[in-house]
Design a protein that fits this description.
This protein is an alpha+beta fold. It has one domain. The strands form two sheets. Strands 1, 2, 3, 4, 5, 6, 7, 8 and 9 form a nine-stranded mixed β-sheet that branches. Strands 10-11 form a two-stranded parallel ribbon. Strand 7 and strand 8 form a beta hairpin. The longest helix has 19 residues. The chain is globular and about 60 Å long. It starts with 9 loop residues before the first helix and ends with a strand. The relative contact order is 0.22.
């Protein structure tokens, strides 16, 4: 294992890609990220390649729920491979209160939501995940199940293993990196994005300069404004899995479906009230054959993603998650949308999005 934590040396990985690219002298196709209103463009411009963005942002009414359900979005971007830095070490064990050993990694979608405690126990600074199913989840990337590698599409078994490792590294850089969680610009993750995809570069530049519903950095990155809240401890709980299959043009299509649980307190004063923000992301990536697609060696294309956020701010497009505490809950009351269990992973993200539809901000049944 190299210094970067990858299972295959970068030199060998780059050699694989150079060899594949060497046979690609015939004007390969360049994918379009389509990060803006793809459905309309496809109707207006028939014959263009399929849109990478497969869903439009749901129209959300300003809600009053404590744990607001929002940000159900699928965006098409192209993303390059991460200069890996394994995140298991970023979030060492602890934080669950020592209630039990962590659950085994998720290998398939569960058939029911986790059980609800008869008497919910409130989180504390010492046990920020108490009373939550996340208390039994893994820490950081340890909670993300990784399948065994096998030769698929244009990639050998070794190349697939490398792609899976770097896919998980990307999840860590976008959703677990301590600096990014404190609101810093996600430079490592941004460095992964294919520089040939100008619309993606435009999206990123706009998202951090002037965040909005359409250009919201939270769609891909987990960020909190450090002047308002801070994370409790050094653990983010996760549960999810990575799967893959052969995609279009022999690409290796990797799907990630992960729920992240972030415990936070107010940054000001000496408040010890712990709130939790819960974000579930489904990200689909395509490791394309450079002989068939114009793409930089070692990069992958982000086909789509969907994000469902609880207590992260409903229709609050500040570029940061904005969790609510007791005082805010008392002032805002209940949401006007459906009730949702943010820990229920038995439903697909497509089902969650259909249930939410055009409803306003919903209310989570638990935190």
């Amino acid at each position: 294992m190299g210094e970067d934590g990858a299972s295959i040396p970068d030199e060998e990985w780059e050699r694989f890609l150079r060899e594949a690219e060497a046979g690609a002298q015939g004007a390969p196709e360049e994918p379009s990220a389509r990060a803006r209103m793809v459905a309309r463009r496809l109707r207006e411009e028939p014959g263009r390649p399929e849109g990478w963005r497969t869903h439009q942002p749901a129209r959300r009414r300003r809600g009053k729920g404590w744990y607001a359900v929002g940000l159900l979005v699928a965006v098409g971007l192209l993303v390059v491979a991460l200069d890996p830095g394994r995140a298991v070490g970023w979030f060492g064990g602890g934080g669950g209160g020592g209630e039990s050993a962590p659950l085994a990694a998720e290998s398939q979608r569960p058939d029911q939501p986790p059980a609800t405690e008869a008497a919910a126990r409130l989180p504390t600074m010492e046990q920020p995940f108490r009373g939550s199913p996340a208390a039994l989840w893994g820490d950081g990337t340890a909670g993300i199940g990784l399948p065994a590698a096998r030769a698929t599409g244009w990639m050998s078994e070794e190349q697939v293993a490398q792609a899976l490792d770097r896919t998980r590294d990307f999840l860590a850089a976008s959703s677990l990196d301590p600096g990014v969680l404190r609101g810093e610009r996600p430079r490592k993750a941004i460095a992964l994005i294919n520089p040939h995809q100008q619309d993606v570069q435009d999206y990123l530049a706009t998202a951090f300069r002037a965040p909005s519903r359409e250009n919201d950095p939270r769609l891909l990155f987990s960020r909190f404004e450090k002047s308002k809240v801070r994370l409790v401890g050094n653990v983010v709980k996760t549960r999810g899995r990575i799967t893959y299959r052969e995609g279009k043009r022999g690409a290796v299509e990797v799907t990630t479906d992960v729920t992240y649980v972030y415990p936070v307190v107010r940054a000001a004063g000496k408040s010890d009230e712990v709130a939790r923000t819960i974000a579930r992301r489904e990200v689909v990536m395509s490791w394309d054959d450079p002989a068939k697609v114009v793409i930089e060696p070692g990069t992958f294309s982000l086909v789509s993603y969907k994000v469902d956020t609880t207590n992260g701010g409903c229709d609050a497009f500040t570029g940061y998650f904005t969790p609510e505490f007791n005082a805010e809950r008392a002032a805002t009351g209940s949401g006007d949308g459906p009730e949702v269990d943010p820990y229920d992973r038995s439903k697909s993200m497509d089902s969650r999005m259909r249930e939410a539809g055009e409803a306003g901000c919903g209310t989570a049944t638990r935190s």
